[in-house]
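User: Sequence in, structure out. Go.
Assistant: Echoing your sequence, followed by the structure tokens.
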Amino acid sequence: MRILLADDHGLVRDTISAYLEAEGRAAVIAVEDYSEAMKVLSNKGPFDLVLLDFGMPGMNGLDGLSDAIKKHPNQSFAILSGTAPNRIAQQAVERGAIGYLPKSMGAKSLVNAVRFMIAGETYVPASLMGESGETPETEFSRKLSQRERQVLSGLCTGKSNKEIARDLDLQEVTIKLHVRTLCKKLDAKNRTQAAMIARNAGFE
């Protein structure tokens, strides 16, 4: 399997690459943004599968997917995300992706999903394919503002304050204030504990 992985978070890139290389015996090329992915695809493609992070620089959500498919109509693409709402999975498939992979997947599940897609099938976790595709608002998320949810999503995927600030087009000092507020609201000692509390509460 030849796979192109594009994700702006180094730890995620390294972890997923290691999964695919060790468990799936895949040859993985990993890059950190959308424009680099398109360059590699033009120069070294096609690949058996291209995994695009939904929130990386240059991606512009599903617009990047549509653009990539338009430029490379014979290439298979899948979306990778740790923070996108559940409805994005369905929308991605409607726009031409052959799959949607949550970053929370275990190594074997991830490799099996990739093999499934390379075999020509479409993969979306069954848990994401509800009738409405919307994530129900929980008691946990109700006590947070929309901005606090966005910041918390960043914490849950291991992003630094600088990365979250860039994603949300805010100042880093503003993110620090939001993190401090989140820790107080969640009764967490630090950002890591805040992320753990959020995960345990089923926050996506």
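User: And one key feature?
Assistant: The longest strand covers residues 2-6.
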